[in-house]
Design brief:
- By secondary structure, the protein is an alpha/beta fold.
- The protein has five helices and nine strands; from the N terminus they run βαββααβαβββββα.
- The strands form three sheets. A four-stranded parallel β-sheet has the order 5-2-1-9. Strands 6-7-8 form a three-stranded antiparallel β-sheet, with no helix packed on it. A two-stranded antiparallel sheet has the order 3-4.
- Strand 7 and strand 8 form a beta hairpin.
- The model has no long low-confidence stretch (mean pLDDT about 85).
């Protein structure tokens, strides 16, 4: 991959949710502030090309059906990664999932088989709700 040939150290962020995007943008700001941006390649890896702005989901759920404009609603919660990163030309985006992470070898294997070396990795893939097999919780939550 061309990113690997840059001679820079790779910092990858896996996941484009709130945690991943926040970490990536704060890291970019700190590297620039300390004049270190030229030493590192920042790479965001996510299988989806948008950030789901979950804080606005309530708006979609509460709009009467006759007032709903599907495109406008989608645009309010699905923010394209390209739009988020357009002010940051040095941040690279790879729209693939991660198949494996090998921290000992400092390698991420991507879903399509490519491998990406890294010096530092931030894993921010979110969470999945666990209902702990409590009867009725899944159905009523």
């Amino acid at each position: 991959m061309a990113i690997l040939e840059s001679g820079r150290r790779n910092i990858i962020v896996i996941g484009a949710g709130f945690g991943g995007i926040t970490a990536l943008l704060k890291l970019e700001r700190q590297l620039a502030r300390h004049h270190l941006a030229g030493r590192f390649s920042l790479i965001l890896v996510s299988p989806v090309s948008y950030h789901l702005y979950t804080a606005a989901l309530y708006e979609i759920a509460s709009i009467p059906r006759e007032d709903a404009d599907a495109r406008a609603l989608k645009a309010s919660i699905c923010i394209p990664i390209e739009l988020i990163l357009e002010r940051f030309p040095d941040i690279h985006f790879i729209d693939q999932g991660v198949a494996a992470l090998d921290p000992e070898r400092h390698v991420v294997r991507l879903a399509r088989g490519d491998e990406l070396n890294f010096d530092y990795a931030i894993v921010a893939v979110g969470a999945e709700t666990n209902f702990f097999e409590i009867p009725g919780v899944l159905e009523h939550s």
